[in-house]
Amino acid sequence: MYLELDEQGPRYAQLLRALKSAILGGRYPAGAKLPATRVLARQLELSRNTVLAAYEQLRAEGFIEGRVGSGCYVAEIAQAPSAPPKRRTRPAAPLSRRGQRGQDMYDRNIPGRQHKGVRYNLQYGLPVTNPALSSAWRRELHYAAARAELDYPNPQGVIALRESVCDYLKRRRGIVAAAEDVMIVTGTQQAIAFAADVLLDEGDTAVVEDPNYQGARQALLAQGAHLLSCRVDDDGLVASELPTGAAVKLLVVTPSHQFPTGSVLTLPRRMELLAYADAQRCFVVEDDYDGEFRYDARPLAALKSLDSNERVIYIGSFSKVIFPSLRLGYMVLPPSLRNAFVAAKWLNDRGCPAIEQAALARLISTGAFERHLRQTSLALKARRAALLAGIKRHTGNHVQLADSGAGMHVVAWLPRLTHAQVERLIENARARGLGLYSINPYYMRKPSRPGLMLGYADLPPADLEAAMALLGRCLRELSDA
Ligand SMILES: Cc1ncc(COP(=O)(O)O)c(C=O)c1O
Fold first, then answer.
1. Which ligand 1 atom is nearest residue 259's CA?
2. What is the number of helices (H) and of strands (E) in the chain?
3. pTM above 0.85, yes or no
4. Is residue 201 over pLDDT 60?
5. What is the mean pLDDT of residues 61-90?
6. How far apart are CA 411 and CA 418, in angstroms?
7. Is the CB of residue 316 below 6 angstroms from any atom belonging to ligand 1?
8. Which of 259, 265, 289 to mutate to test the pocket of ligand 1 (most atoms within 8 A of CB)?
9. Which of 126, 330, 450, 478 could form a disulfide with 458 if both were Cys (CB 3.0 to 4.6 A apart)?
10. What angle do helix axes 48-60 and 37-44 make, rounded to 10 degrees?
């Protein structure tokens, strides 16, 4: 019998795996005698002790019977069908409706739209790299790990981090909250999933902006929500058009910087939205994903700061202001919802990792976080200026900019092109090393004109200038074709 060892880990474990696979695959049928340990050791150039240990383990697990060292036989119970089992493409029993909805979404999303490996990738969502932040983060992680409490953390979040978040929100976002109102989560995605979980039953109506953040849409649809949308214009969500026919239970909005168009919800519309929530007796999720970064004026106060009737569930994320792999964010909850959300967190994962939370609390309290914010704002401002100048210089009258003076991306509308032409543009650009992304996936209904999301956080100004020169060349080629 030929046994192949996989060279992974200790020799004894390799042999054990090879023998199990031979038995389960039927190459050693029930009742067959295994080779004597000395013989096998010689054949495979292993020590006899290694073979003895593997046989002992097989015996302990019930694969073989007999006395190791004087004849071992394959047990009946270990007998498997002679052909190795095929990997199923469908589960042996049906998934739940929620499981199936989630899988369908994930499968559709998997190929991804990301242009990995291109020279200039204008992918939205990539963070600014800041070496000073990396070293401060390493230091704080080290400090926190050395002092870690080993018991389960408070599911609502480490108190030091919740207090730091309150302090930050008061200074930067105009929100007055106590630590008991704050819950630490693994990011916006988890926060919206909890909102759906706690507030929606299958078939309940939720409203999103059109266009919107696909992560929010997916979380609501996975929950089985009936999804309606409301149009957005240059002043943000058109609150006067919010649906009145259905019993809306939840709204998800991005008032400080509408995602992805970049418009900012005006004060009258904010008041209209809050009045609507009161009238509908529903909750509003405020996704404040990058409200921090404004370049031409002070950041606007959050919608939550106007929320006198406790209708707004505020969500902040560290994905944009630090980096997305951190997977930390927070919610500011109306007191009436606090226990239900903490229970959802507790049921879901028993709380975010305590060491990262403690490290982040210190990153904020030592001032390193605010230093990083200042540096990042400056870097983003320079990158944005380079991008806009490059567009002006290289793209002629092809591009209409929807520039809100905030965030980490701009929307470039291409009103003179068709959707099909923009698809060709994206392909041609990719072949030349430029990663471009259509705005279409964020829309519920295809927009009347095609447009591109230009994420600029990850590229230095010189690269952005070069990227826009390439875009200009691709646009000219398309017009000449
Ligand atoms: C609109 C919007 N909200 C939230 C997020 C961040 O999500 P998370 O905190 O889950 O990383 C993003 C990231 O791209 C976003 O575009």
1. 1
2. 15, 16
3. no
4. yes
5. 75
6. 16
7. no
8. 289
9. 126
10. 120
Q: How far apart are alpha carbons 224 and 310 in whole angstroms?
A: 25
Query: If 0-12 CB within 10 Å is exposed, 13-18 middle and 19+ buried, where does residue 331 land?
Result: buried
Count how many Cα atoms sit within 13 Å of the Cα of residue 170 in the half-sphere of its side chain: 11
* Structural contact between residues 257 and 404, judged by C-beta atoms closer than 8 angstroms: yes
Angle at the Cα of 310 (from 305 to 314), degrees rounded to 5? 55
pLDDT given for residue 111 in this prediction: 46
Rounded Cα distance between 11 and 110, Å, is: 37
6-12 long-range contacts (CB < 8 A, ≥24 apart) are 11/46, 11/50, 12/50, 12/53, 12/54, 12/57
Q: Which atom of ligand 1 is nearest to the CA of 254?
A: 1
Tokens read off for 335: 């007191």
Tokens standing for 231?
């149009």
Task: Kindly report which listed range (187-196, 282-291, 298-307) carries the lowest average pLDDT score.
Answer: 298-307
Structure-token pair, residue 248: 């809306």
Nearest atom of ligand 1 to the alpha carbon of 287: 3
Is any ligand 1 atom within 6 A of the Cβ of residue 317? yes
Question: Encoding tokens for residue 358?
Answer: 């403690």
261 lines ligand 1 (CB under 6 A): no
Q: Where are the beta strands (DSSP E) in 122-197?
A: 182-185
Ligand 1 neighbourhood includes 369 CB (under 6 angstroms): no
Q: What is the number of other CB atoms lying within 10 angstroms of the CB of residue 338?
A: 16
Ligand 1 centre distance from Cα of residue 123 (Å):
14
